[in-house]
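Weekly modeling sync, notes
Attendees: S.R. (lead), two postdocs, one rotation student

Agenda item 3: backlog of single-chain predictions. S.R. asked that every request posted to the team notebook include the full sequence so nobody has to chase files. The rotation student volunteered to paste the first one in as an example of the format we agreed on. Action items at the bottom.

Example entry:
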Amino acid sequence: MKIFPLLFLGLAVSVGAADKSYQPQIVPAEFQATVDNLFYPFGPGTTWTYLEKSGGATSTNTITVTHDTKMIMGVTCVVVHETVARNNRIAEDDYKWVAQHKDGTVWCFGAVARETSPGGLVSTEGSWEAGVKGAQPGILMPGCGQPGKPYRQEYLYNVAENMGQIVATNETVTVPAGTFTGCLKTKEWSMLEAGTELKWYAKGIGIVKEIATAGDSVVLVSITHE
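Predicted structure, as returned to the notebook:
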């Protein structure tokens, strides 16, 4: 594991050890399961379909907001189901628990990650639940919608250490699903591996495009509502 020095929320953090200073104060009464952030909405019954190209392989990624909820740390979270289909099989089958603070910030309270290799081996590496074994919730999208300091998207030491930062606004993006203006752009990365991703979020839609430093890409093909 590489050790990256990071200026996080004004604090110098060494990622070579568990960050015990990261203890977000969660007040359940200040959260809601209705996630209607302008750039990261999660309305139940909504499905996004993406085309991913990585290492010469093409995958179909599907994200669906279910009608289910899960209580974590006293917060009612909406359950989001994500799958990755590759070579006519489901390679990844994940669940994420999401809630929104009253200030509009979208938080992630955990994830169940299930990845199946071509040979049938199943890995749940990357799974975590806030409040369990030191795991802490993180921010998927700040409520301010403006460039600012980096933020943790999740936290379980040496398991889930993704970061994000809004870096630009008012971007225009064209993908198979259409052309979107006024998009918000983020830079996102993991403290556990090298490389970064640029992501574009459209108003009322969510993620429409991703480009990784390794050359991988993800584009929105369609979005449907029940």
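Discussion: group reviewed the output briefly. The longest strand covers residues 57-72.
Action items: rotation student to repeat for the remaining queue; S.R. to check formatting next week.
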